[in-house]
Amino acid sequence: MIKEVYLIKDYNMKIYLFLTIALLNINLYSQDNMKKIINTTNAPAPVGPYNQAILIDGTLYMSGQVAIDITTKELVKGTIEEETEKVMQNIKAILNEVNFTFENVIKTSIFITDMDNFSKVNKSYGKYFNERSAPARETVEVSALPVGARIEISVIAKELN
User: Fold this and answer.
1) pTM of the full predicted structure?
2) Which CATH number fits domain 36-158: 3.10.450.50, 3.80.10.10, 3.40.50.2020, 3.30.1330.40?
């Protein structure tokens, strides 16, 4: 009888220990994988109900960036190359906020209002990536972009192991 009581207590203790460890692991996992809002003053502030980026599970989902100058809060007016350069600088500022670089970028989406500018955009954009490890990408012509921009680029980046 005494031996059976000890076995039951030992069994109950093992269950309690297992549940405690499981709950701790679930809590740690959920904390690591919580959605983290990313906003930096080094890139243009959102102009609507969205954030500059979201980091979850080591992946950064960045909202589309246009060529807004953070000091003037105005769209850069100039050549498409100058506009593209400003967009890439804004992207870099958000990447830097989470200690990422352009090497972390795995996917981009480029929206331009005139496909005739494709080669110029491609040349300016290409300066930021190593050709051998450049991200996947699509480029789409659209009829219009916010604030009269001619280019917008969104990014997905991933923590490197």
Assistant:
1) 0.81
2) 3.30.1330.40
